[in-house]
Amino acid sequence: QVQLVESGGGLVQAGGSLRLSCAASGLTFSTYTMGWLRQAPGKEREFVGRLSWFGGRTSYADSVKGRFTISRDNAKNTVYLQMSSLRPEDTAGYYCAALPRGSYGYKYWGQGTQVTVSS
After folding, report:
1. DSSP symbol at 39
2. Closest CA to 33 of 77, 98, 104, 78
């Protein structure tokens, strides 16, 4: 069965950095576009960014451009979200998701990891 497990969340001071990891199993990882999304209490889920299954094409929300970077290591079946210059408004639960090649919506989701940025 497919499983996505996020890790690396925690408490960090404003201006600091944090790297989230998402380890995938049960799927051919290199054929999936991997995305990161977040959701704060009382707010709707928000797109953060994605990295294509092939070619290294990325897309980011305007709110995180220049601060967040997505990367992947296909040999380790892992996608990363490097977050820098963190702000209190970045506080949210962060989720990774997998989009199969040829599909138009995310098929698999992780359980999430909490990121809290203090001022």
Report:
1. E
2. 98
